[in-house]
Probable peptidoglycan glycosyltransferase FtsW (Bilophila wadsworthia), 381 residues
Amino acid sequence: MTMARRRVPSSGFRPTQESTPVGQYDWGLIALFLMLLCIGLLMVLSASGVVAERINGDKYFFFKRQLIYAVIGGVVMWVLAAVPRHILYKLQYPFLLFVLMLLFVTLSPLGARVNGAQRWISVKFFSIQPLEFAKIALALYLAYFMSTKQELVKTFSKGIIPPFAMTALFCFLLLAQPDFGGAVVLSLILFFMCLIGGTRFIYLFMAIGVGLAGALALIIFEPYRARRLVAFLDPFADAQNAGYQLVQSLYALGSGGFFGVGMGGSSQKMFYLPEAHNDFIMAVVGEELGFFGMTLIMVLFAMLFMRCYKIIMGQSDLRDRFSAFGVTLVLAIGATLNLAVVMGMAPPKGVAMPFLSYGGSSLLASMMCIGLLLNFSRTAR
């Protein structure tokens, strides 16, 4: 709760000398990000080769596309790192409205339906998943609200309804796709932003109760969600149907041993493990690089989040501090939930591993977060 003690004028954010990037970038953060990105590119190459050759006739197809996404993301990252912060904040509401528009477009005939869900917008040679950018847009909006409305956040009508209503709108559009996992991620962002923003605990407990009741209702009235929950509790009881993906993931992790079977040696990626190069790429990491490789990636993420924490606590302006926390939260929730799903500690949610999973939207959004954190690192004390 110490993050909510420094206040800014109630009239809103005013750029100060501290909020104009003048210092050095956090090169430690850059080094850790580049190491994770390189590991991710190598693992996409390893995990996707067989599938790419079968579907596209080119085993480097997904790797080359991921490399293109990384280059585009790199340009966006450096732009966000260098642009004056008051310009970034002026673009917050246009970005929020743009993401909302993308979510509406996803539900239109322009949306692409894959595996029964309409979560993407397909444009010729590439597709966009608006959820990845919705996370950033919501986190930045909540950071603005919590920092500029400190005298109101403990009230119900003005401190609870606006941020909860905005999050509910995002979640409603996601559930219409349907994307239950995406709605859960946005709800977690709201919870943690309210927690550090100073929202009363009684309101948070009430929100948790309402949220759990709503989630239970969605699970009960949608049979496929109930099957997923049952399969998560005992995946081997339905190993050929609802529990298939988790069972194959556990097989991959179990067969990796301490040092793994070696790069390219995974057997589970041979059409046994669905989404091997996407959401379940960490299962391939566990099989090919073993416990050592999994631990190395976890340590790199831990070090990266330590750098993020230093950047967050180094901000003298409350909006800067909350915004840095928000984009860090986007990365932290993604990494935590992905590992939890792969290891069977949470039901499958379709959450990508930042920097490692294949996907242009996920990689671009993750690199946008790094770009924003680099911008904040230049004013960290």
In short: The first helix runs from residue 27 to 56.
